[in-house]
Amino acid sequence: MFAFHRSPRPEPDRPEGEAPNGLPWESVWDYPRPPELRPEPREVTVTLDGETIARSDRAFKVCETAGGPVIYLPLEDVTPGALEPSGGGGSFCEWKGSATYFDVIAGDQRIPQAAWAYPDPTPTFQPIAGWPSFYPALVECRLGGELVRPQPGGFYGGWITDEITGPIKGEPGSEGW
After folding, report:
1. CATH tag, 26-165
2. Closest CA to 67 of 159, 134, 162
3. Separation of alpha carbons 84 and 105, rounded Å
4. What is the pLDDT of residues 15-29, one digit of tens each?
5. 25 and 44 Cβ atoms separated by less than 8 Å
6. Model pTM greater than 0.70?
């Protein structure tokens, strides 16, 4: 028989004042579970090899306890031909449903499975049905001009900017959260 050991909830970082980007600090431990859909007020840009493949001022972010916010853009704000369905499989989120993956293409460059979307998400997430998100570890993503850092761990698609504080799921020692 296997026993599952859950690590204790870490103490969240709660700095005073404003973050270096001028925004209020935002702890991932204040995000809800189940996750919540929120408008993203900053302009979103995604580039590959210096070519803009997406630009939007109509994005939404999904905020879930312990994870970096994940940004979704209207498909109409993605350059035509920049996304092609990936040959790989999909994944399933208990909150959003089944995801499909896309290769991101710019010029001669193709990054396999660098984006994903929920074509038919659960009712709470219907506003982002078919909207892609991009892995900031694989393509350059910016929020309001600020370069996004990928959420640690390689698996997660969270977009980390200067106002986001943790600890964040994916960092060493977070396996049991």
Report:
1. 2.170.150.40
2. 159
3. 8
4. 999 999 999 999 999
5. no
6. yes
* Residue 50 Cα distances to 44, 77, 105, 107, angstroms: 15, 17, 12, 10
Q: List, as own/partner pairs, every contact residues 153-157 make where C-beta atoms lie below 8 angstroms and the sequence separation is at least 24, other chains included.
A: 156/67, 156/68, 157/70, 157/116, 157/133
| 87 closest CA partner among 69, 101, 73, 67 | 101
Burial class (CB in 10 A: 0-12, 13-18, 19+), 136: buried
Query: Residue for token digits 């302009």?
Result: 43
All residues at 6 or more sequence positions from 20 whose CB lies less than 8 Å from its CB, including other chains: 162
Residues 6+ apart with CB under 8 A from 24: 18, 163
Give the model's confidence band at 88: pLDDT under 50 very low, under 70 low, under 90 confident, else very high.
confident
Sequence-distant (6+) residues with CB within 8 A of 172 are none
Query: Using one digit for the tens of pLDDT, what is the confidence trace for 30-70?
Result: 999 999 999 999 999 999 999 999 999 999 999 999 999 99
> Reading across the β-sheet that carries 60-63, which strands appear in turn?
36-39, 60-63, 70-72
* Six token digits for residue 135: 């892995």
Q: What are phi and psi of 112, to 5 degrees?
A: -65, 140
- What residue segments make up the domains of the chain, in order of their start? 26-165
